[in-house]
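Running co-folding for NAI.
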Amino acid sequence: MKDKKVPAAVIQRMPRYYRYLGDLLAKGASRVSSAELSRRMGITASQIRQDLNHFGGFGQQGYGYNVEVLYNEIGKILGQDQDYNVIVIGAGNLGQAVSKYTNFNKRGYKVTALFDSNPALAGTTVAGYPVLDATELGEYLKENPTDIAVLTIPKAGAVETAKVLVEGGVKAIWNFASVDLDLPQDKVVVVNVHLSDSLRVLSYKLRELRGQEDSEEV
Ligand code: NAI
């Protein structure tokens, strides 16, 4: 890798490159020009070159990009060349939806168990995965090294649970609980997910569109 400090905006675009290249690969494309990739993705060709240069380039003058090579390289950059053990904390609506989404499993995120503080849920299964009592979390982590925890519980218990996760060696938390987790950054990475942020961007754009339509009607 050329540069270790890759800007956050570039990292945010990488999964999109990966998806587009995956689609191209599925359609049997073997190469793509940066102009074509740019047109498909709505990003300038120069931006694409700059983005990929952070990782060593991959393109060839006059040829463009080899789709399979670039797909695999970006996959490696995104850590898609390995599997991850995943646990889900909170077996409610959201925790169940995440656990039931089979594409995560196909992409290497292997759910091993769910945990819930509601004793009525302990002992049940979700999509074939066991739901364990939340009090067993610490012990479970000792026996079952876990890479990623998905936090789908209300904010009240999230900070305390996150501590147990870090103590148990979990290195990554996908945090849906609407609370900031103040954790040692050298020990654990956290990605916060706020679906409502995305929805608010949608309603902002809807408002803009309606504003345009209204001014066209005048
Ligand atoms: P839910 O009420 O269906 O499920 C929550 C589950 O967590 C329940 O089964 C409950 O027993 C369990 N739980 C509560 N405290 C726990 C703890 N300390 N340890 C283990 N289990 C615990 O709620 P839902 O709809 O699944 O949402 C879960 C949380 O995620 C909510 O707090 C909600 O605000 C949040 N949320 C966040 C979104 C986002 O985009 N960030 C989107 C939707 C929900």
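Result summary
Residues 89-95, 115-118, 121, 134, 152-154, 157, 161, 176-178, 193-196 surround NAI (CB under 6 Å).
The mean pLDDT is 92.
Job closed.
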